[in-house]
Amino acid sequence: MGENRASADGDRRIGRRALIVGGIAAATGTAVLARDELARLWWRMPGVEKPREQGVVDYAGARWVAASDANWRRADRPDDYHVDMVIVHVTQGSFDSAVQAFQDPGHKAAAHYIVGQDGRVTQMIRELDVAYHAGNRDYNERSIGIEHAGFVDRPEDFTDEMYEASARLTARICARYDLPVDRKHILGHVEVPGTDHTDPGPHWDWDRYLKLVRRARTAPTPTPSTSPSSTAG
Fold this sequence. Notes:
6-stranded mixed β-sheet
């Protein structure tokens, strides 16, 4: 079944890329223009992926620690899958235990980011790729997952530093994918169809969080990282 899914995903990406490239060539009507467009969009050709540099983060200020490749699927988002939501999680454990779980190939799940109670942000999966975090394939393909260290029944775990750091992260994601800052596009894991999770739970302050995201959304955009961040030792 896993091989069939991989094949289907591959066919979907190849089909869309071939259609894009073929459409461009037909629209130009000349070999020269078609060649120029193919050169510009070379990474959309079947079997060719976007250039990647190991350890580079999508969010300035995040620390890179790679998740096990068993816990996510390589993709070329948003070109193969449109990103239209952010999903908020709570780890039900410590920051370090979440990192360890996402590095474990037997865990079979991981989110793109983890935010600590002290405001630190670790990225473990590139936003290009599909993280296994939502428990729903369609939602995985369309979303960025953010874990927050703590427990759903302990409101004291949701610190000011965590709210503010997470809001800045979500604001940048919303800006990157042109997402409205609302509860239709920023939702909790509990709202994903088919899931049995309850996070972020009743103590997560959605009104406060969305206000912080909106405020951060209008703030100047930080300079993106241009070199690999530190990796786990």
